[in-house]
Amino acid sequence: MSYENNLRVALQEAKAGKDMSREAGAGVWANYVRSTCYPFQPANVEALDKAHKNLVDVLESMKELSKEEKNSLRSAKSVIGKAVTNNVDVWKRDEHGSIETEDGYPMPKGKSELQEAKSDFERMVAYIDAAQKKYDSDTREAFDQEQLQELWSKLALLADAVYQAKTAQ
């Protein structure tokens, strides 16, 4: 059975109060992650949006999604979106960096694991990485001279503050 079919079954069972999310890898969450992020995790939120829309279209073609099912999917997308924005891997990895599998299925990290608080350093690095990705993105709007100057000023202030802290140590 495909990940989409598994997700469709999990959504139906969740509606009936039998969500298997508590069982590792069997519920809505795991199958949503597999359907949108396997084999490649989206590089940015735009790619996730596209994968989500395609998934919804596939699921709708099987059977119309209820409001509760759509909300479930949106909730999962929100968690994945934050992970993508923060450059956090959604997959459990073994000591060699390969995605862990269980019964042949790739295993995503749990929602709570992805939502755990990160250190200030990790958040700042993720923010800078996300800003760089967005700046390099084909979907970024063109900036005028004033906007570029404001970006340059803010980056220069941050770079100077980091440099001053570094040299003070």
Can you describe what's shown?
By secondary structure, this protein is mainly alpha-helical. Helix content is 63%, strand content 2%. It contains seven helices and two strands; from the N terminus they run ααααββααα. A two-stranded antiparallel ribbon has the order 1-2. Helix 2 crosses helix 4 (67-85) and helix 3 packs antiparallel against helix 4 (67-85). The model has no long low-confidence stretch (mean pLDDT 87).
Helix content: 55-70%
Based on Cα principal axes, name the global outline.
Answer: elongated
Radius of gyration: 19 Å
| SSE class | mainly alpha
Average pLDDT, rounded to a whole number, is 87
Largest sheet, spatial ordering of strands: 1-2
Q: How many individual β-strands?
A: 2
Short account of what is shown:
The chain is mainly α. The protein has seven helices and two strands, in the order H-H-H-H-E-E-H-H-H.
Keywords:
single chain, 169 residues, mainly alpha, two-stranded antiparallel ribbon, 7 helices
What is the strand and helix layout of this fold?
Elements: H1 3-15, H2 28-37, H3 45-62, H4 67-85, E1 101-102, E2 105-106, H5 111-115, H6 120-136, H7 145-168
Antiparallel strand pairs: 1-2
Helix pairs in contact: 1-2, 1-3, 2-4, 3-4
